[in-house]
Amino acid sequence: MATDVTEHLNRIDEVGYTIVEDAIDPDVVDGIVDALARLEQELGAGPADNLFEGTSTTRVYNLLAHGPVFEQIPVHPAILPITEGVLDPGLLVSSLSSIAIGPGETPQPIHADDQVIPLPKPHPATVCNTMWALTDFTEANGATRIIPGSHKAASSPDLVTDYDSIPAEMSKGSVLIWHGSLWHGGGANTTSTRRVGIAMNYCAGYIRQQENQQLGLPVDTVRHFSPRLQQLVGYGIYRGLIGHIDKNVPANLLLGAGEDDSLLWDYAKPS
């Protein structure tokens, strides 16, 4: 496993992305697909009215608030170690959503997921995102399009310009992982069926999350998460400092957890 993680990290470093083939058990994939179908119906979810989200694409956001079946996604043992390697173990859940690209959808504008972060490029990863294939991803049905090596560019793409890209084709149950600076976008769907994926996105522990996990998830919901998932949604502290509440670890103060509550300055005791 350690060798596999290293190989994937080397590939992300070199070209900006990797694909973990057949990473997710088929029963897990099918359970998520069934849950999403029910959730879309319950919420009355439908396409957006803008080209970025897609006028033939259905998205459901904040999935951790919608049932235990989604809790296994951020902590999946085949994927989390790779994203931890791109960022570090203090990473956070930035967002968790579904993306179902319907027939007739046009290509999404090429973009970088970190381009709203005002840092000079290139820079170390502040974002590491993943796409779980809940159906086969093909060029015809809208597989994510990527520009290999673009994570090393000195700028972000112009959202109104067309760029040469390649499809990240992968089988159902596989996961695409990429550096947040990689230029990419959803593809066009020229088939008669939907391309369905889960966007499981992470950010560094010192970067603000895309979805506000602390306000979007009821405390009673988080109370039943595993300790690692509680940390990932922001109830821990980063490197002994960032995110504390009055010198308390949020999980201890709000959930009654028993996390180590040592802070960075506790290690600088007078001699």
Q: How do the helices and strands line up, and which of them pair or pack?
A:
Elements: H1 2-15, E1 17-20, H2 26-43, E2 57-60, H3 80-86, E3 92-101, E4 127-133, E5 145-146, E6 166-167, E7 175-179, E8 184-185, E9 195-203, H4 213-216, H5 219-223, H6 227-235, H7 250-255
Antiparallel strand pairs: 1-7, 2-3, 3-9, 4-7, 4-9, 5-6, 5-8
Write structural notes for this entry.
By secondary structure, the protein is an alpha+beta fold. It has one domain: Jelly Rolls, CATH 2.60.120.620. The protein contains 7 helices and 9 strands; from the N terminus they run αβαβαβββββββαααα. The strands form 2 sheets. A 6-stranded antiparallel beta sheet has the order 1-7-4-9-3-2. Helix 1 packs across helix 3. The mean pLDDT is about 95.
- SSE succession: HEHEHEEEEEEEHHHH
Strand order of the largest sheet: 1-7-4-9-3-2
By secondary-structure content and strand pairing, the structural class works out as alpha+beta
Rg (C-alpha, Å): 19 Å
Helix content: 10-25%
Give the CATH superfamily.
q2cbj1_9rhob like domain
**How much strand?**
15-25%
Q: Under the CATH scheme, which architecture would be assigned?
A: Sandwich
| Overall shape | globular
- What is the makeup of the main sheet? 6 strands, antiparallel
How many E-type strands? 9
